[in-house]
Amino acid sequence: MTTLFKSTEARPMPGRSTGPMAWLRANLFSSLGNSLMSFVLLALGLWVVLASMDWAVLSAVFAANLQACNDMRGAGACWGVITEKGRLIVMGRYPEVEHWRPVIATALMLGVVVISCMPRFWNKTLPLVWAAMLAVYFLLMKGGYFGLTDVDTDQWGGLPLTVMLTVISMVLAFPLAIFVALGRRSNMPAIRTLCTLYVELIRGVPLITVLFMASFMLPLFMPEGVKIVVLVRVVVGISLFSAAYMAEVVRGGLQALPKGQTEAAATLGLSYWQTQRMIVLPQALATVVPSIMNTFIGLFKDTSLVTIVSLYELTGALGLALNSDADWRPFKIEAYLFITFIYFAFCFAMSRYSLWIEERTAVS
């Protein structure tokens, strides 16, 4: 029996799966309902932008002219408050003539954080880079050597203090959280109980209580003549608080790992720490990357609470700048929008890095 084959017409080329049009089609206009909802939301967003454009731009005052700002109050924004008080908001009470020091120190710290996020720099020299950076950072901020004016830690503030508290607390809290998470899954009852008590105790109180205890109660228990600066006590308190929450996140990742992974490692003759370092932790941490980054973002914003112990970070410096000058106080909305943009920029950068890590680890 002879089979006849007939040629068919070529099928049309499939649509592109990448690019702006493909993204719009997949995310905003994939169906009739999604298309209608997208048009409604886009129209609403456009209306909000156009309605606020007059207040934010067209009728706004950008110069530090108090009279012009008062004349346009209620009709236009007074961005002149940023021009007038921006330096105090960003730098806090740090001496104005020495502002170049926190600028360089903060740029150096952020630069090391950025290169630490790149896998190509993950080698044995990275801890040395961190040690050198911290030495230079505190030398610039504190001074007292090489002709630099000594600046007490109580005068540190603004964005440099916010960045420093966040970065150092992250560095201290992350390894502590891993050890606590491993301790909670330990077969040793004493270690497991100790780690559980630590987590439950810290999570049972708000951060403001931890800061209060570290700043006002801890000195009462110190030996006579021993004094720890409030900045160190605050860093330790924030680190312990963040580590407790992060430990539960890491523990969730450890519990999600199949038991067969550790059994296979035991079969290969790996020790406990070899198993954790090479098999368990890489997979567990990759699973909980979004939750870890969420903890980091929360930590960055929680630094605003240190104002209660007279450390004026970004939010506290804003209050200090406006409360000390009644003339510019009515324009606090513009000042808060200014620091809102700063917080958003840092938090958005951390969230994008989290997504990049998820793509690299094929976890989504």
Q: By CATH's scheme, which homologous superfamily of the largest domain applies?
A: MetI-like
Structural class: mainly alpha
> Class of the largest domain in CATH?
Mainly Alpha
Mean pLDDT: 87
Give the oligomeric state of the chains in this entry, treating copies of one chain as homo and distinct chains as hetero: single chain
The percent range for strand residues is: under 5%
Q: What gap, in angstroms, lies between the N and C termini?
A: 54 Å
Q: Kindly identify the CATH topology of the largest domain.
A: MetI-like fold
Proportion in helices: 55-70%
CATH architecture of the largest domain: Orthogonal Bundle
**Uncertain spans:** none
Run of helices and strands: HHHHHHHHHHHHHHH
Tell me the number of structural domains: 2
Biggest pleated-sheet summary = none
Could you tell me the number of beta strands? Answer: 0
Q: What is the general shape?
A: flat
Q: Total number of helical segments?
A: 15
Radius of gyration: 27 Å
Task: Throw out a few tags for this protein.
2 domains; single chain; 15 helices; mainly alpha; 364 residues; 68% helix; MetI-like fold
Topology of helices and strands:
Blueprint: H1 20-27, H2 32-58, H3 66-71, H4 80-91, H5 100-116, H6 126-142, H7 158-184, H8 189-203, H9 207-221, H10 230-256, H11 259-267, H12 272-287, H13 289-302, H14 314-323, H15 332-360
Describe the structure.
This protein has 364 residues and is mainly α. It has two domains: 66-94 and 155-360, MetI-like (MetI-like fold, Orthogonal Bundle), CATH 1.10.3720; 98-150, no CATH class. 68% of the residues lie in helices and 0% in strands. It is built from 15 helices and no strands. It has helices spanning 20-27, 32-58, 66-71, 80-91, 100-116, 126-142, 158-184, 189-203, 207-221, 230-256, 259-267, 272-287, 289-302, 314-323, 332-360. The mean pLDDT is 87.
